[in-house]
Amino acid sequence: MTVLLYTLLFLVSVAVTLGGCALFTNAIEWLGKRLGISEGAVGSIFAAIGTTLPETSIPIIAIFFGEGREEVEVGLGAILGAPFMLSTLVLPILALLLVLYARAGKRTARFHLNYGEVITDLTFFMIGYGVALGCAYVPSRLVHIIVAIGLIGLYVYYMRLKFSATDEEEGEGSKLEPLLFAKSAGTPSHLMIGLQALIGLAGLILGAHLFVTAAETMAGTLSMSPLILALLLAPLATELPEMFNSFLWLYRKKDRLAVANVTGAMVFQGTFPVSLGLLGTEWAIAPSALATMVLAVEAAGFCLLQILIGGHWRPWLLSASAILYIGYALYLYAL
After folding, report:
1. What is the pLDDT of residues 161-220, one digit of tens each?
2. Alpha-carbon dihedral of residues 242, 93, 230, 124, nearest 10 degrees?
3. CATH topology of domain 2-334
4. Which of 44, 252, 300, 326 has the maximal Cβ count within 10 Å?
5. Nearest to 82, CA basis, from 105, 56, 103
C-alpha cells in the first residue's frame, strides 16, 4: 500500500510539474518578445536561471547556514549533481525525444539550432567547470577565492554576450502562442506575464519537491543506498524543471529555446553555485563525487566535438552521452 501511495505521489508530481512548465515556458517566451531579446538569451538566461535559482538555495543554506560536515556534503552534492545530470542525461534524452517525435510525425528528426550559440554555451561551461575541477587538486584557500571571483566574472561576461546577441533567423515553430493568462490580448502586459511566470515557477518547484519526497521515501522503503539517492535521484528531481521545459519546447519545435535552456543552465551551474562552494568550503571532494565533474566535462566536450567536426548534432550520436550516466550509476550500485 505504501509503495502504491508514493507511486501515486510520483504521478502527481509529474502532473504538477507539467502544468507549471506550460505556464512558465509560455510566459518566458512573451517576456523575451516584450523585451526584444533573442531566443538564445531567453532560453539560456531567463529560463535557465529561473528554473535553477530555487535549487541553488540548497547549497547556500547547507554550506553557509549548516552546522556540520553532513550539511556541507549535501551542499557539495547539490552543486556537483546538476551539471552531471544536465550533460550526461538531459541532453541525451532531448536527442531521443527528437527521434520519437519525428517517428510520431510531429516534427523533423533534426535539431534546428544556431550552433554558434551552442558552441558558446558549451565552451563557457567547460572553461568554468574545468577550472573548478582543477581547484579540487589545489588545496589553496587563496587560489579558491580568486577562482570563485573569476567564475562570477565569467558568468557576468557570458550574460553580456547573450543579451547583445540578436535573432537573425526564425526557426521551425517560431510562432508565439497567446499568453495563457490573457488569451484575448494581442500584446499582454508585463504584469500578466510576470504573474504567469511566477505561478508557473511555483508549480515547477512544488512538483520537484513532491518528486523528492516520493523518491526519498521509496529509497528508504526499498533500502536504496544513500549515495545513489544523493548523487542520482536528488539531482534528477531538482533538474525536473529544466527537463520538462526543454521537452515541451522541443515538442513545439522551438529547438533553440529547448537546447539553450539546458546548456544555459549548465553554464550557470558550472560557475555561480561552484563559486559558492569554493568560497564556503574547503572544496575537498570525495573521489565518487569528483568523478561526476570529470564525466560532465567529458560529456560537454563530446557534444562540442560533434559540432566542430560535423557542423551539427546527430540525435543518435548525442544520445550516446547517456552511457556515461548509466556507467556511473552502475559504478555506484557496485559500491
Report:
1. 988 876 655 555 456 778 888 887 778 888 998 898 889 888 877 876 676 666 666 666
2. -60
3. A middle domain of Talin 1 (1.20.1420)
4. 44
5. 56
